[in-house]
Design a protein that fits this description.
Alpha-Beta Plaits; 374 residues; 30% helix; two-stranded antiparallel sheet; alpha/beta; Rossmann fold; globular
């Protein structure tokens, strides 16, 4: 397999010129790539991004989303900016607006791909692990898509890039009883079990209750309970517990295989060469943008990577992260991570390379790439 081209714009601005700014060079690169290669005239185009959370503001900036919208419009496409339900749908749209993601700032309609209740989806065969997944309706029906991923760390996946943005971000947030295992929740826990509580370790600090986006966690008479009908198995409560009193059983191998299978399912709803991927290696967070806060970056801004190869764009992104030193005053310094060490692996004890390897094995792209600097 020939190496796939991956275009790279460095975050450095060495001259005080708009044309040489990150926004200016993104605009130029999108013209060079020519989105008309991927988009037909009058074709509806999903621009998939992450809306962030209340308190988590380091998402892909609306400025960059707007540049992509403009490039789609210039190519004759009809874009809409979208994500899937992570908290209650109407609340999530409010969060998006507060984070600057709205029709005025982005230049295109902003909507939830799976509806305001997270139940608008189409079942799609995925593979042996889940059988099928629920792809959000607006993603399923869109003939073309541009995937904008804020590359970062992740509690379960090690890293969050384009693969995860397809595999989890394009599934519905359905919490209907017996349905959750085919949506994002099923990918999170991968059907390994329910939330477990160690009463002896628990300090009853209530952080798990406060962080739950669906109010599924509670304490009654100092006894922890979780409403399993509401729970999306996202693991946020586990992530914030200072006493490690909560656990959500998951198998890393199954989890990463599940990510690859789910990404393949989403890809199966598009014809070839109808998706373009842009990974933003900016304000690189130790955790997912769905957490209710943003930390300082753990790595200096690197730049933007663009490719039509799902595997190559994530492999190139991870390779650049591995070459970068940790930033002082960050979670990386808290963990004592030294230059030359794999920062995300050290932070989460989860190897994000696995999802890339499994995606490659499923034929979703090439791990070999040529980095084209612009």
């Amino acid at each position: 397999m020939e190496p796939s081209p991956v275009y790279f714009i460095s975050a450095r601005a060495t001259k005080w010129s708009y044309k040489l700014s990150l926004a200016g060079r993104l605009e130029s690169l999108l013209h060079e790539i020519s989105l008309s290669r991927y988009i037909n005239k009058d074709e509806t185009v999903a621009i998939k991004t992450h809306f962030g959370s209340e308190g988590a503001h380091r998402v892909v900036r609306p400025l960059f989303v707007r540049k992509v919208v403009q490039a789609v419009l210039e190519s004759g496409g009809k874009p809409f900016v979208t994500d899937t339900v992570r908290i209650q749908g109407l609340d999530y749209l409010q969060v998006a607006g507060e984070n600057g993601i709205n029709a005025l700032s982005c230049g295109a309609p902003v909507l939830l791909a799976d509806g305001i209740f997270g139940n608008d989806h189409v079942p799609v065969p995925s593979g042996d692990l889940q059988g099928e997944v629920f792809v959000a309706s607006a993603v399923y029906d869109a003939p073309a898509m541009v995937v904008l991923s804020h590359f970062k760390g992740h509690f379960n996946a090690g890293i969050g890039g384009a693969i995860k943005n397809l595999a989890m971000g394009c599934l519905s947030g359905s919490s209907r009883n017996r349905d959750w295992k085919h949506g994002r929740g099923g990918i999170h826990a991968h059907m390994e079990g329910l939330l477990q509580w160690d009463q002896e370790k628990c300090s009853r600090c209530d952080q798990c209750v406060e962080v739950c986006p669906l109010f599924a966690c509670s304490f009654e008479n100092e006894i922890f309970t979780c409403d399993t009908k509401k729970c999306w198995r996202c693991g946020r409560c586990v992530r914030v517990c200072p006493e490690q009193a909560l656990d959500l059983p998951a198998d890393q191998e199954r989890f990463h295989k599940g990510l690859a299978e789910s990404a393949r399912a989403v890809l199966s709803t598009f014809k070839e060469k109808k998706i373009l991927y842009a990974n933003f290696l900016l304000e690189i967070q130790p955790e997912c943008d769905c957490m209710p806060a943003a930390d300082v970056p753990v790595i200096q801004d690197i730049g933007i990577l663009i490719s039509d190869d799902l595997v190559a764009v994530d492999q190139a992104s991870l390779d650049l992260l591995r070459e970068s030193p940790p930033l002082p005053g960050s979670a990386a310094e808290d963990k004592g991570i030294r230059p030359g060490e794999d920062i995300m692996l050290k932070l989460h004890q989860v190897d994000g390379q696995k999802q890339i390897d499994y995606a490659f094995e499923l034929g979703l792209g090439s791990k070999a790439y040529t980095l084209i600097k612009r």
